[in-house]
Amino acid sequence: MELRADLLVKLSAEVGESPYWDSHSGCLWWVDLLKGELHKADMTGKDVCVGIAPGSLGFVVPRVKGQFVAGVNSNVGTLNVNDNGVEFTPMIEAEPYRPGYRINDGKADSRGRVWFGTMCDDTHKDGKWFCIDEEWNVRPLPQAAQVPNGLGWTADGRIMYQADSGTRTVSIWEYSDAKGIPTGLKRLVILPEEYGAPDGLTIDQEGYAWVACWGGWCVLRISQEGDICGRIHVPAKLVASCTFGGTGLDLLLITTATYKLPEKELVEQPLAGSIFVCDPGTAGLEADRSLL
Predict the structure, then answer these.
(1) What is this structure's pTM?
(2) Domain 2-278 is classified in which CATH homologous superfamily?
């Protein structure tokens, strides 16, 4: 299956990440990570920066209580939108013993836990996975990683996907939803170099992962058996993340980046950093909300 993505919002985001579709308002929330910007876009192509966090904004996750849980620099806390922009209240520091490390991508599972990864900002190595329960207890996960990135779970909570950009791998785990831990590695997919590195990802109703390929000009569809069974071409080299949106959650919304692209490549990629949309022929799942 070979598809092409169309332009939805013309932008030049440095690193467009953590897209979340709000079905209630019919809007896409996303972050420009290193700038700390929280954005809100709609399906007409209008985009607004609603506020700037006090540091890099690795992820936003919707809360059951309203507003967001967010990762800012090395802290996880609550992020509230108000008339003055955004207000971040830090609750925990992920790695106080490792200066120079920041939070990268994150997402909630069906039980409301928040999962996220950390990485060394200088070397882009030595990352770790963490999980926070509803009481703000944080625990590290034993899975090794260089650059922890996209996360996702199937609708039945039995399969978990993890992307590690540093090793170009997508891990497919058996998952214990009750315990909140991956219980056994099913498949380890190493992306061919032509597809770059796996970045953000999302899961469709059939249990397949749609994986954004940083440096690969595409989003790939990967099965639980580790097969690449679909591809969406994106007219931007640095494809950062994706999520399902639209009225029926049947459109794939794709964020991209301009991060460190040479001037020549920026000229050749006038849509780099924009948001794209594609009808992939399947639908996704509602975003899980955090109980924090």
Answers:
(1) 0.97
(2) TolB, C-terminal domain (2.120.10.30)
